[in-house]
């Protein structure tokens, strides 16, 4: 009965009154361990560095010769200490600072923003929980509807996208032969760096060695022509 | 009297024997069957367009047997007919194409094109920006990274012209235009004269100078008679809009392989379709329009739909 914290442990050990002291210590250790575990559950995610999310939701290369899609196609959240955490798990404790973007000392250091003149996180992510996106007027929007969010600014793409022109599609050439799936924005573009690094830095497959198109440059040089 | 007559007799006998040997030698390939690509049935089969359904079935079975003998692959040789009320067309956004050649290799794999010597239906030209002078194009660009600054990439394949000069050039009617606009070749009817190649202004046709070599392990077993069944030496082939796929509803192999979505394929008669939208809203061009070949392969550039789409009625309209 020395501290309120050890009450429970003391009660269980009360019949061995002669050895009360060692039992109390054990109970105290147990209690401290429990509190430590609870603290770890609450604070743990903030102490572990959240892994780089790029590529977390990347889909497999769909077809022969196609490039793997890049970023953030999967559900939002990050696996930290073996648990899937949502954004608000941390951000309900850690409120963003007034300065946005705040200097990133521990978390999100991998995030590079090169998206026009957007630099602030809150320009797209809804405060305070960050579990949602926001439209320009502050309307919350789930990440699954990012298309609406993107088209708010990128009006020039809307016509093309709605008619299936912007970006590739999987499936047949017409809907009557089965579902045609048009890839969403985030399946090709990293919203933080939308300039398509994957595609812009593509290596070409080998060039032709056909009769019709003449010999490759190297072969021509060897032949002295 | 006897000497000249003996000489004449010997000359005649030798000539006769030589003629018989030559005739036997020329007919010898017929006996060897599929190994050489020649067979009596193939020699005597009617033109594709004049085949009865029964004859067609026999021919498809023969081709399947030939594939089995040549490659040990149990192929499925179909004969997809043109879909009624459909006219295929192709559109390619040269702004999105980065020249990665994935379409080229996907096409060769899909269509069982010869790997050695190499035959490719699609060629990709690297051109200086702002130029459509195809003579400046480079087929053999090799860069670490694509695209190169100041260059753009122009893939060219069969344009499936509405008025195809190659069809008029063929002396035997081995190539013709189907109702869905695809210009096809009956590889068994082609005599290999290559007049169609001379007539094509787009360099779209390829000739099998040597027996085409396709590794049996890489053989695409889903075939069509007019599409990607194995060819033999001495015949012309070309892009056929993957009709074995597209007539079954699939996209052509090059469209599927394009990582950027630069290639669009569809029915140009479908008013709500992608092709109709492109033709209505994009600045579309075709190659060599002055020749009057009316290509069904359209090129366009850029994302200017905001400018081109019908604007919402603003205050100064109405």
Notes on the structure:
The complex is a heterodimer of chains A (about 220) and B (about 325). Chain A is mainly alpha-helical. Chain A folds into two domains: about 40 residues; about 120 residues, no CATH class. Helix content of chain A is about 30%, strand content about 5%. The N terminus of chain A is likely disordered. With about 325 residues, chain B is an alpha+beta fold. Chain B has a domain of about 220 residues: Alpha-Beta Plaits (2-Layer Sandwich), CATH 3.30.70. In chain B, the strands form five sheets. A four-stranded mixed β-sheet of chain B has the order 10-2-12-11, with helices on one face. Chain B has a two-stranded parallel ribbon with strand order 1-8. In chain B, strands 3-4 form a two-stranded antiparallel sheet. In chain B, a hairpin with a 5-residue loop joins strand 5 and strand 6. Chains A and B meet through helix 5 and strand 5 of A and helix 4, strand 7, helix 8, strand 10 and helix 9 of B.
Largest sheet of chain B: 4 strands, mixed
Question: How are the strands ordered across the major sheet of chain A?
Answer: 1-2
Count all strands of chain A and give the number. 6
Strand content of chain A: 5-15%
Number of helices of chain B: 10
Number of helices in the DSSP assignment of chain A: 7
What characteristic shape of chain B results from the CA principal axes? globular
Chain oligomer state:
heterodimer
- Radius of gyration of chain B equals 25 Å
Q: Give the CATH level 1 class of the domain at 88-306 in chain B.
A: Alpha Beta
Which architecture of the domain at 88-306 in chain B does the CATH hierarchy give at level 2?
2-Layer Sandwich
Compute the separation of the termini of chain B in Å.
113 Å
Integer-rounded radius of gyration of chain A:
28 Å
Uncertain residue ranges of chain A: 1-18, 54-74
What structural class results from the helix and strand content of chain A? Answer: mainly alpha
Number of strands of chain B: 12
User: Shape of chain A from CA axes?
Assistant: elongated
Q: What ranges of chain B have pLDDT less than 50 throughout 5 or more consecutive residues?
A: 305-318
